[in-house]
Amino acid sequence: MERPCAWKKYTPQQIEELEELCRGYKQFLSENKTERLCVKAGIKMAEEAGYVNLETVIAEGRALKAGDKVYAANHGKDLMLVNLGTAPLEQGFNILGAHVDSPRLDLKQNPAFEAGDMAYLDTHYYGGVKSYHWVASPLALVGVICKKDGTTVDINIGDKADDPVFTISDLLIHLSSEQMAKPAKDAVDAEILDVIVGGRPVKFDEDDKDAPKEPVKQMFLDILKEQYDVEEEDFLSAEIEVVPAGPARDMGLDRSMILGYGHDDRVCAYPSMLAQINVANVERTSITLIVDKEEIGSVGATGMTSRFFENTVAEIMTLAGESSPLALRRALARSRMLSSDVSAGFDPGYAGKFETKNAAFMGRGLCFNKYTGSRGKGGSNDADAEYVALIRDIMDEAGVDFQTCELGRVNAGGGGTIAYIMAEYGMNVIDSGVAVLSMHALWEVANKADIYEAYRGYKAFLERA
Ligand code: MN
Ligand code: MN
User: Fold this and answer.
1) Of 75, 154, 299, 448, which is most buried, counting CB atoms within 10 Å of its CB?
2) How far is the CA of 407 from the centre of ligand 2 (A)?
3) Spacing, Cα 433 to ligand 1 middle (Å)
4) What percent of the chain has pLDDT over 90?
């Protein structure tokens, strides 16, 4: 039972729709390389579509009714979009979920140092990365510096055409015989992922007793002070992410794919948000949930295990006149969810890691993983067969190309998503998403047909589930 390649069926008009969607996605991906920026961009998309901040609704003491559209943000890193349906909320919601944190290097709290007449910023990696990917490549610094006076300085250096970029050096091949003999995991020690940010000292008099001991680092700090009005100590309260520099681009002579940083999991988040705002009137309330911290276990105040989702649902149900705790529990248990995250695209170069009957192929449409987990489905949300049947029916009715898949061969490895956390409410959840190549590398590959089918599948789910 082989699934067809989605490209074969497209009409010229569908190709145009696909390209328009992917143009928007490339821009989203290029401009929003942190979870904070993704949430900001999501709020802008929602507001332009008529969504109102839930805090405003609460402050004005307004009631919510069918047809109302609201959004709620959490610490600037999670976003929930809600489109109230005509059915009582107690009957449950149709929920799309995806994450917008991506693997990267975070600056340490005390990052700056000087060595070999160069200035550096030290990092601690975030999520699952292969250290050797990060060397000898152009990098950007994106994030925020929060100052004691309560102001926040946005940092975004390396992506504009005339911006400087940064890099982490690698050892020259001529001196690498020892390094090349190491297992790949040890070839580049994560502790030496230090970003070079300067190579020119401040001018000083050699005889001056107060001359800076680290004049190149001093130059870096002086420029920061001048351009951003921040001090070295301000790094203590900063969140700056080191990410690949440069935009997402069409890939392949046929322009069928997109090479970009952060497909995991913005390639699911963007089409989810777009489907949410493009669905007008619904019977069952539709919700799109964009979350942080998936890559490190969905922990913390902005991870899926926080109470943000449940609390926000309680707020909305109260404003809609369904305030009982039991109604809330019923609504959660009766909800249906597509928990979206990227799938491992079949890679012919590493064919032995896949079992092809149950692998995700690039261009064959939206992926559904009945279960994820690793080594005996460990840690997996295993969707009910009944729910998978419902999903198949919705996708077939809407003419959405989809495929079912597993992450690699049995016992090959595996990974988790946010699905099992939502399943704790008793709701039906299935893992879905877009296949990518080079997952967690600096530049990941996605196929435009899969992005388009994901968008169509998400829309069909919100309208029909
Ligand atoms: Mn992911
Ligand atoms: Mn991931």
Assistant:
1) 448
2) 12
3) 9
4) 92
Summarised one tens digit per residue, pLDDT across range 240-258 is 999 999 999 999 999 999 9
Number of residues in the chain: 465
Alpha carbon of 71 to ligand 1 centroid (Å): 23
Residue 341 and residue 225 share a domain: no
Q: By three-state DSSP, how is residue 405 classified?
A: coil
Q: Return the DSSP state at 436.
A: E
Which alpha helices (H) appear in 32-82, and where do they start and end? 35-48, 54-59
Residues 170 and 42 in one domain: no
CA 173 – CA 179 distance, rounded (Å): 9
- Nearest ligand, CA of residue 433? 1
Residue 360 shares a structural domain with residue 233: no
What mean pLDDT is predicted for residues 354-370?
A: 96
Which of 201, 219, 244 delimits the end of a domain? Answer: 244
Distance 265 CA to ligand 2 centre (A): 7
Look up the CATH number of the domain holding residue 166.
2.30.250.10
- Rounded distance from Cα 317 to ligand 1 centre (Å): 30
Give 100 Cα–ligand 1 centroid separation in angstroms.
8
For the chain, give the mean pLDDT. 96
pLDDT in tens, 218-227: 999 999 999 9
- Note down the domain range covering 316: 6-102+261-464
Which of 128, 430, 97, 153 has the alpha carbon at shortest distance from 292? 97
Q: Say if residues 427 and 117 touch (Cβ distance below 8 Å).
A: no
User: What's the burial of 379, exposed, middle or buried (CB within 10 Å: 0-12/13-18/19+)?
Assistant: middle
pTM (global) more than 0.85: yes
pLDDT score of 414 more than 80: no
Assess if residue 234 is contained within a domain.
yes
Give the count of domains, the chain.
2
Gap between the Cα atoms of 102 and 439, Å rounded: 10
Q: Which residue has the higher pLDDT, 379 or 338?
A: 338
- Ligand 1 centre to CA of 2 (Å) is 26
Separation of CA 321 and ligand 2 centre (Å): 39
Q: Is residue 452 part of a domain?
A: yes
Nearest to 267 by CA among 158, 340, 211: 340
45 and 152 both lie in a single domain: no
Same domain, 298 and 419: yes
- Looking at the fold, whether 233 and 265 belong to one and the same domain comes out as no
